[in-house]
Amino acid sequence: QAQLVESGGGLVQAGGSLRLSCATSRSIFMINRMGWYRQAPGKQRELVATITSGGSTNYADSVKGRFAISRDNAKNTVYLQMNSLKPEDTAVYYCNAHKDYRPDYWGQGTQVTVSS
User: Fold this and answer.
1) Tens-digit pLDDT profile for residues 70-87
2) What is the pLDDT of residue 2?
3) Which residue in 1, 23, 43, 47 is deepest, having the highest Cβ count within 10 Å?
4) How far apart are CA 67 and CA 84, in angstroms?
5) What is the DSSP string of 56-102?
6) Torsions phi, psi of 25, nearest 5?
């Protein structure tokens, strides 16, 4: 059974918006730093954004000002609001749960395709 379940990917035109969701169990959600990574064809997986259990956020320079990560503690869900999407944002987006000294949890990935 998947520990992290993503949804919300799809096809959108440049300049459009999408919101990704990642639902997990409370035990994973509350003790881990949650985040989103992405991997484009032929490229390495890269960090997009992270959010700690206390709400501190971190973003890749390429998405600052366009993407926003948030978490709903009541729903054990983390979101990635993506605005002003560009073709170079096209990738498979993965949800991640991280805690130091423990193996990471990964979602199955959701495809985001931005057409020009």
Assistant:
1) 999 999 999 999 999 999
2) 67
3) 23
4) 8
5) -EEE-TTTTTTEEEEEETTTTEEEEEE-S--GGG-EEEEEEEE-TTS
6) -80, 160
